[in-house]
Amino acid sequence: MLDAATSHHLLGCSPETSVVMLGTATYPCLGPFSVWSPSMLADLIYVCICVCIYIYNIYIFFFFLTGHAGNACLEMVISMWKNLLQTMKERILQQRRMSVYNQAHGYEEELVKKQLQQFAGGSINLTKEDSGIGILTLNNPKIMNAFTGTMMLELQERVTELENWKDGKGLIIYGAGNTFCSGSDLNVVKAISNSQDGMNMCMFMQNTLTRLMRLPLITVALVQGKAIGGGAELITACDFRLMTPGSEIRFVHKLMGLVPGWGGGARLVRIVGSRAALKLLSGATRVDPERALHLGLSEETLSSSDEAGALEEARAWLSQYTEGPASVIRATKEMVAAGRELLLEAALRTEKDIFGTLWGGPANLQALATRPKHK
Ligand SMILES: CC[C@H](C(=O)O)C(=O)SCCNC(=O)CCNC(=O)[C@H](O)C(C)(C)COP(=O)(O)OP(=O)(O)OC[C@H]1O[C@@H](n2cnc3c(N)ncnc32)[C@H](O)[C@@H]1OP(=O)(O)O
């Protein structure tokens, strides 16, 4: 369950309240700025300067047009300025609210990013289809789509892109070359084998995967071949998992003298229960499609083993749940995410707020006019 501050990520909580709660944790005097990284502040300052120049131009234009800079013009400029700043502030705070770690937890994102940047290779690709389904590909097939540092950074960028995709309804994540993902690139693991670097990488990935889990999209991991270590952790950040024949999920962490660190342990407990999770983790058990179905870790075993066929089947499976207006699908996911993470009263209040965004809205009015019965 989320604590009070973290619970503000969901709808219905005013950004201002979250600002105060997150901000006061470290530097009360700085308010919201205490949770912003240097690069975000630099971005903000840059945009502010651009906006100032833009507004100045408008002001000059009006001045020449009317011969004087009247009150109405000045008010308009001030109001535009305020709106722009507010929108930017909400966007940045939205990202912060969706994350688990900030500076208050000793997490220095810019430093972590710099370090990850040193381990290059592979890519994370995103295609946004007109149907509202996104396809995210883990692409490093030479090493079974293991995550290099730059892939971790790209995953974060793609998640940001998905957060800003307002027409999106669903997402399928799969690996290139008929296999899902074999976790962290072992070269990275070896190069950063000290506790602090490990925890930094772990906080970075937990933030990204938590934001992935909280996307207002219905997400599916398509498991072909192997989902190993961090790959097994990644699939637990999706709402659903589909497996192809012969595929395997395996939390190998124990064999490496570790436990999951990307949030996969906590999420696995919530998916399969603590007893089954303990067995899978402490036994480093190979989970085949049949066992995954039995545990509730997978929804279905697909019939195709090849990439194109499996992807088509996954699309068809997901379409059962993504048909209809984006506003309703997205609200449904947000409501379930609140139920999954918040204490009951907070979840109920969130449900009321989400309900309020739909009641009397276009999708609701059209349904009342055209489909009053559901036979
Ligand atoms: C906290 C844990 C941490 C995290 O969550 O951040 C991790 O994820 S640590 C990484 C955990 N994963 C592993 O330890 C996987 C290690 N690899 C294997 O056990 C096998 O390669 C396996 C079972 C994934 C696949 O075996 P298979 O026989 O089918 O293929 P190959 O072994 O021949 O692999 C092909 C090729 O890929 C390279 N490879 C595979 N996984 C990784 C990896 N994680 N990092 C770097 N390289 C990887 C493997 O070495 C082969 O390359 P080659 O040049 O042909 O030797």
From TrEMBL:
Which E.C. number(s) belong to this protein? 4.1.1.94
Main enzyme class: lyase
The reaction(s) annotated as catalysed by this protein in its Swiss-Prot or TrEMBL entry are:
(2R)-ethylmalonyl-CoA + H(+) = butanoyl-CoA + CO2; (S)-methylmalonyl-CoA + H(+) = propanoyl-CoA + CO2; (2S)-ethylmalonyl-CoA + H(+) = butanoyl-CoA + CO2
Instruction: Please list the GO terms describing molecular function.
Output: methyl/ethyl malonyl-CoA decarboxylase activity
**Location relative to the cell:** Cytoplasm, Cytosol
Q: Which domain of life is it from?
A: Eukaryota
Q: Does the keyword Membrane apply?
A: yes
Q: Which UniProt keywords apply?
A: Cytoplasm, Lyase, Membrane, Transmembrane, Transmembrane helix
User: What GO terms describe the biological role, i.e. biological process, of this protein?
Assistant: fatty acid beta-oxidation
Pfam families with a match to the protein in the record: ECH_1
- Membrane-traversing stretches: 44-66
Which InterPro entries does the annotation name? ClpP/crotonase-like_dom_sf, Enoyl-CoA_hyd/isom_CS, Enoyl-CoA_hydra/iso
Extract one GO cellular component term from the record: cytosol
Q: What does this protein do?
A: Decarboxylates ethylmalonyl-CoA, a potentially toxic metabolite, to form butyryl-CoA, suggesting it might be involved in metabolite proofreading. Acts preferentially on (S)-ethylmalonyl-CoA but also has some activity on the (R)-isomer. Also has methylmalonyl-CoA decarboxylase activity at lower level.
Task: Tell me its family.
Answer: Belongs to the enoyl-CoA hydratase/isomerase family.
- The protein in question is named Ethylmalonyl-CoA decarboxylase
Q: Which organism is it from?
A: Amazona collaria
